[in-house]
Design brief:
Helix content: 40-55%
CATH class of the largest domain: Alpha Beta
Order of helices and strands: HHHEEHHHHHHEEEHEHHEHEEHHEH
InterPro entries: AB_hydrolase_fold, DUF1023, PPE_sf
CATH topology of the largest domain: Rossmann fold
Pfam families: Abhydrolase_8 (PF06259)
Shape: elongated
CATH superfamily of the largest domain: Alpha/Beta hydrolase fold, catalytic domain
Distance between the termini: 67 Å
Strand order of the largest sheet: 3-4-6-5-7-8-9-10
Number of helices: 16
Structural class: alpha/beta
Number of strands: 10
CATH architecture of the largest domain: 3-Layer(aba) Sandwich
Protein name: DUF1023 domain-containing protein
Mean pLDDT: 85
Strand content: 5-15%
Low-confidence stretches: none
């Protein structure tokens, strides 16, 4: 209704501002002097002031009506998304905002009931968050609109008496009024808010408000788990350019001043990482690659961190999140990992197409923690005890939760972990409610978070039977590290873990050593391990090849 009113209000405003020339003509008639002329001039000035205030009021009403109508569309979207999520899980949202969960479906297998119950608890919390954010947005819009209307009704939109009536411009008065009538964008939840709360906040914003947040506050959007991937990417690309300018300026200054060498080296590393990310996000001709999404960007800490997706994480039916291991860096080998995961995604889509399934696959290379650098055998001792691994596991759990929370319809989500990244993946999957449906570790020294802790696949919050391990011949990390340092039970002996092959099988070639799991042979043939990873990502475990 408010959007419909904007047109008539605009027409009235245009008629009003057209009177400016006439007002200037009657303001100071040539040749008229005396008491009557002064009285007439004073009367005309009051009329002009009144019309200026009226122009400001109409302009303020026009802008606020349009903004409120736009914001209400965001509120309605938030309501629709909450209702869609509730319906897909056979839950209901009452008129008072309460969420009712009838519990797991009666046909849920016994060995799945615990995981399903945990997942439903997560969904119920997400729905409660969405209801809260929709109400917060609606209250914020209502409060802002009331402030504008109160100014209009009290005649205090602008101070028209302060204007120079000899240079009267009703359009200028209208512009001043419009400036006072903009709605505030609902502030985001706290930095440590659950991804479901972030998703609820973002869903309740209108498209205009989202774009305003991205343009004006990209730092509040780009790394906020629960925000849609495409919007995070837009924000992070803006941040990338801003950080590049800032680091370049600082580096040039330090070089001129012969500044601290350690700080110079730190800035040089940041710029190398920025250039590497820019290269991964663009085509060779310099154009932005529409098939890439920059889902996180963190240039703090000892080393830069990022997450880059290939495919559309917001719409793909199958999403895989890959966490690489030791010696991984943004400016070193991340580009190779992104390429490898792109290959896994394409192999998964090929399997789906052969089955007549047109579902899409997106893969994310998540380097959101700082892997250890392998220098000697002592580095292997620190793989699972380093603080960055624990923190990385917590961050990865939130990242996975954010992917699910950002979508009304959750994808089939697979967690992939290689080497030290499999420890981080294991820590993340110990968190309830990540929404991960399948997990594959390869080249893994273990999946426990602390030295000496044994565990089973059941300790991971993934449906029973949906955890997989791949160990290639000649891989010392997967073969010998679990037997010496024991980051939990050795994955190749772990109860409840499906063991998949890395040997040559049928048309597929063998993988060897620690770094060939996602390999494609020079003749274009996938390795058996890559085929197995892709089959799990595609949700087709029946196509996997078991280990001998």
């Amino acid at each position: 209704m408010l959007n419909d009113a904007v047109g008539p209000i605009n027409a009235a405003y245009n008629k009003l501002v057209a009177c400016s020339d006439d007002l200037r003509d009657i303001n100071t008639p040539d040749g008229w002097r005396g008491t009557a002329a002064d009285a007439a001039t004073q009367e005309v000035r009051q009329i002009i002031d009144g019309l200026e205030e009226h122009a400001a009021e109409v302009a303020a009403l026009r802008r606020s009506a349009g903004d409120v109508g736009d914001a209400i569309a965001g509120v309605q979207n938030g309501v629709r998304e909450a209702q869609a999520i509730a319906a897909s899980h056979h839950m209901t949202i009452g008129d008072d905002g309460s969420v009712t969960d009838p519990g797991p479906p009666p046909d849920t297998p016994d060995n799945q009931k615990e995981v399903v119950a945990d997942e439903r608890k997560r969904v119920a919390v997400e729905l409660a968050d969405r209801v809260e954010e929709v109400l917060r947005q609606a209250a914020d819009v209502d409060n802002d609109f009331c402030i504008v209307l109160d100014r209009i009704l009290s005649g205090h939109t602008i101070d028209a008496t302060a204007d120079d009536n000899d240079k009267v411009s009703l359009a200028a008065a209208g512009n001043s009024g419009a400036l006072t009538a903009g709605l505030s964008v609902l502030s985001p939840p706290p930095v440590d808010a659950d991804p479901s709360m972030n998703a609820a906040w973002w869903a309740a914003l209108s498209d205009r408000e989202r774009q305003q947040m991205i343009a004006e506050h990209p730092e509040l959007v780009g790394n906020r788990d629960g925000v849609k991937a495409a919007d995070r990417s837009k924000a992070n690309l803006l941040l990338l350019e801003k950080e590049k300018q800032s680091f370049t300026t600082d580096l040039d200054r330090l070089r001129r001043e012969d500044g601290d060498s350690d700080e110079i080296a730190r800035l040089e590393e940041r710029l190398k990482a920025i250039n590497a990310i820019t290269g991964m996000m663009h085509n060779p001709d310099g154009t932005l690659n529409p098939n890439r999404q920059l889902m996180s960007l963190d240039l703090t800490g000892d080393h830069p961190k990022a997450a880059i997706a290939t495919g559309n994480v917001d719409t793909a039916q199958h999403v895989a999140v890959f966490t690489p291991g030791m010696n991984s860096t943004v400016d070193g080998n991340m580009n190779g990992y992104v390429h490898d995961m792109d290959g896994v995604g394409k192999s998964a889509e090929d399997m789906l197409r052969r089955a007549g399934d047109m579902s899409n696959v997106a893969t994310v290379t998540w380097l959101g923690y700082e892997p250890s650098s392998f220098s000697d055998l002592s580095s292997l001792i620190d793989l699972g005890t380093a603080e960055n691994v624990d923190i990385g596991g917590d961050k990865l759990a939130r990242f996975d939760q954010g992917i699910n929370a950002s979508r009304p319809v959750e994808p089939h989500l697979t967690a992939l972990g290689h080497s030290q990244g499999s420890i981080v993946t294991g820590i993340s999957l110990a968190h309830p409610g990540t929404g991960v449906d399948d997990a594959v570790v390869f080249g893994s020294p273990g999946v426990a978070d602390h030295f000496g802790i044994d565990n089973t696949a059941h300790d991971l919050k993934v449906p029973d039977g949906h955890v997989y391990n791949i160990k290639a011949d000649g891989d010392p990390v997967a073969q010998w590290v679990p037997e010496i340092w024991r980051y939990g039970a050795a994955p190749y002996t772990m109860d409840g873990v499906n063991q998949l092959s890395a040997d040559a099988s049928g048309p597929f070639v063998a993988s060897h050593g620690h770094s060939e799991y996602a390999m494609t042979a020079p003749n274009g043939v996938d390795s058996t391990s890559k085929h197995n990873i892709a089959a799990v990502v595609a949700g087709k475990p029946q196509l996997t090849i078991p280990a001998r």
